[in-house]
Amino acid sequence: MIDINNIAELVENLKKKINTYHGKFAENEMLVRYAVVDPLLRALGWELDNPEQVIPEYKTERGRADYALFIKEKNPHGPVAFIEVKAWRKLDDEALRQTATYAVDEGVNYIVITDGDQWALYDMYKNIPLKDKKVLSWSLLDDDPFEVTFKALSIANTRKFGIKPSEPLFTIVPKPEMEETKPKETKEAFTRKTVQKLILEILANSGKPLTRKEIVEQVREHVKLTEKDLEPVKSGLPRWEANVRWVLTGLAKGGLIESQGKNKWIITEKGRAFLGGKQEKNNTEP
């Protein structure tokens, strides 16, 4: 089963691995495949030891693709995608053109190129210039782990390969209760009401003003997100983050939190009373 939070945690670990061993990865393409690409593909539901799903060093008329991925529901007659891996920081236009040529010769719909850090997915069936065929790209080093997770789901072993998932595939599972000094985990779904309470708990226990970014990051640590939560909204933010920021604005307007300096927030006495159930529910909820 594909688990969003497990993928995000893996991305964090892979980022540390790349930062630690980038020198070795720059010299050894196979090490990139073994240490970075293989773990991510497994997390995305690919059984690397199952030739019905993955064949390494797949032979084409003009060369070998590093990986050929198979999904019978999408293409019963051959691979649905080729993956080309290069050593760290060795990605170039030639790698893209080479892999695109393999795909065109074999009638393969998608190609993925990566150096372990940078990833890019291309739809070869689009009748447009090659550079414009890019569907998604992401960086393990530079992008937020949940943003990477959302984008990487486009190459997961599902019938939705090649597109951004749009239907919930994952359920929210509550984490164990945290220590007393930290916000308690809720068993409720990821709703604005739940986020409102969590933000107040985070600020009540922080002991110092927190920036909006710090609050958003801490909220993320205390909830499990569904695939739908990770979908982007019009602003480009994931749905869950947009909701957290909206709730923050509502809490400020209601006087439950207040600004301390530039973009730093604390809980007010009114917020503490609200959190403790000492006042009736008001109209502060967005």
From TrEMBL:
InterPro entries, A to Z: HSDR_N, Mrr-like_N_dom, WH-like_DNA-bd_sf
Annotated Gene3D superfamilies: 3.90.1570.30, Winged helix-like DNA-binding domain superfamily/Winged helix DNA-binding domain (1.10.10.10)
Record-linked Pfam families: HSDR_N_2 (PF13588), Mrr_N (PF14338)
Restriction system protein Mrr-like N-terminal domain ranges (all copies): 197-275
Signal peptide annotation: none
Native source organism of the sequence: Thermofilum adornatum
Top-level lineage group: Archaea
Protein name listed in UniProt: Restriction system protein Mrr-like N-terminal domain-containing protein
All copies of domain Type I restriction enzyme R protein N-terminal, residue ranges: 33-126
